[in-house]
Amino acid sequence: MRDTLSSPGGTERGHRGRVSTPRGIEWAKRRVAVVAGVATLGGILTMAPAGASGPGPSASTVTGPSQTVLVTAAVRPDPYNAATAGDPAANDIDATVRSIQTNAVDNVVTATTGQDGTDLDAANGVVANVTPTQLAALQANPAVVVTPNLPVAMADASLGSTLTGLTSTLTSTLTSTVSTLSSATPNPAPTRPPAAVFPQTTGATTLWSRGIDGNGVTVAVLDTGITKSSDLKHVIGGVDFSGEGNPYDDNYGHGTFVAGLIAGAGTSSKGQYMGEAPNANLVAVKVAGASGLTDVATVIKGINWVVNNADRYKIRVLNMSLGAIPVTSSVLNPLDQAVETAWQAGIVVVVSAGNAGPFNGTILSPGDDPLAITVGSLDDNGSTDATQAQTSPFSSAGPTNPDGWFKPDLVTSGRSVVSLRAPGSTIDTLNSTAEIGKNNFVGSGTSFSAAVTSGAAALEIQSSKLWPGAKGQFPITPDQVKAQLLGTTTAGPVGNPFVDGHGALNVLKAVVNPGLQLTQTVPTTPTNMGDTVNLKDTWQGSSWNGSSWNGSSWNGSSWNGSSWNGSSWNGSSWNGSSWNGSSWNGSSWNGSSWNGSSWNGSSWN
Length: 605
Prior knowledge:
- The chain has helices spanning about 40-45, 90-115, 130-140, 160-175, 200, 205-210, 255-265, 295-310, 310-315, 335-345, 425-430, 445-465, 480-485, 505-510, 535-540; strands spanning about 65-75, 120, 125-130, 145-150, 150-155, 220-225, 235-240, 280-285, 295, 315-320, 350, 375-380, 390, 410-415, 415-420, 435, 440-445, 515-520, 550.
- It is α/β, with parallel strands linked by helices.
- The strands form five sheets. Strands 6, 7, 8, 10, 11, 12, 13 and 14 form an eight-stranded mixed sheet that branches.
- Helix 12 crosses helix 13.
- About 60% of the residues are buried.
């Protein structure tokens, strides 16, 4: 019998508004038209897919001209402060400030619409249903920022048949934006056997032999739930925002697969398929049900719950193998703001880059957030020899749109990796050929690279218990975890910061070479969509700037800007084929690769 959530504290605080239904569109396979996020955004805002039935995550069923939007404070009241990240007293103060600001935003919404919004404290705002007239009034108010409640999906890059199966749930409302979805077919059989060698390639197995296996560290998996099994021995809690009512019933199958990559014990496979941190604890934060679809507001609710329950479950890592198409600067994006809230609370946030590669400017949100550890995929070719690794062509590439931030941060195994099945789930039912034995499954996507990295973060955090003066605690901060993981990578297959970031994950080097320090800041000036950005400027505030580091093993000299200093970039010239290390002098980059003409169906074949 499956467990159900019945513990106190397992509900989110601040529900003053109405509960709503999910709105979403599948976003994963490279065939899906990205014009849905740009050319027809207005259409998305006014429609809910036919398949989004049942009790929904975030807004009540919308009819007529009403829209579901997020309304947040124009000026963030609790800017990121690295010096106080994770400090309990500072966290309490920040929570109070966010609550006050959220109430103030809700007062604006109530005065405009006559109804309360639903609190999203982690983003200093609310989600609300508004008419066009009310929307215009809110947009004219300088005290708030209004953003669409965008669709979010949890899916990998190889589930063509899953996308085909979901087409009927989307056609009636999104025909023009997913016209290529109906032609999607299951991916061809892999050109190599599936494998799960990532614990060897990252050095995790060596750490296990030294007693560093994630023990005592909890990873929150914000996904489609986790189906418990003998392979997942340490699922210690959960919450369900999907409307299905059980965080331990993964009806889509993605969250269980992700959980297995993080902390699978390998029981059913006799140790053949294990997670990166097999003794780490897991908490299931379920934000999507059997369709794998949700929205930004529901994801933020999940983040808010993680922040509020971090002490209770000792959550130090938040895995977010999901993404939404960015339509605004990360400075104004509520999802990014919620991620920064979690980071400030002392939680390392690991996010997938997206599966829209090899095109540049395709990093999804919240992978576009400067603080988060954004992970791309590489193909290890089933080999523990790092020289055999190749770039996964589906892995999204930077810079971010529209800000021009340098992403992804690193890459690790994400193609044809093996993890756990959720029997009877959507993915399991529609992809029977991907089954490996009775308990395992094969999949590809940056979702899974993020999961491996979350496990590595758990190992790094556990290792900090051995630091001088640790006194049995985990003193490492999120910035320090990021410094260790980024500053100790091995060379990536391409050597391009917008393709494979700082390089390939090597958690063994991260653990045995402590002491790296990375100073991170959060920009406060937004970039408008379509603006041209100078990458010299964005580089200055990034993890590539040597002056941001303090540690003998990192000096930033390998990317000092000499190849592109003073250059700007044009998205139209960023096509995966040009990234051979020599084509670094384009003209200008203004995010034009996100316009409708560049993202037609032929680009996704």
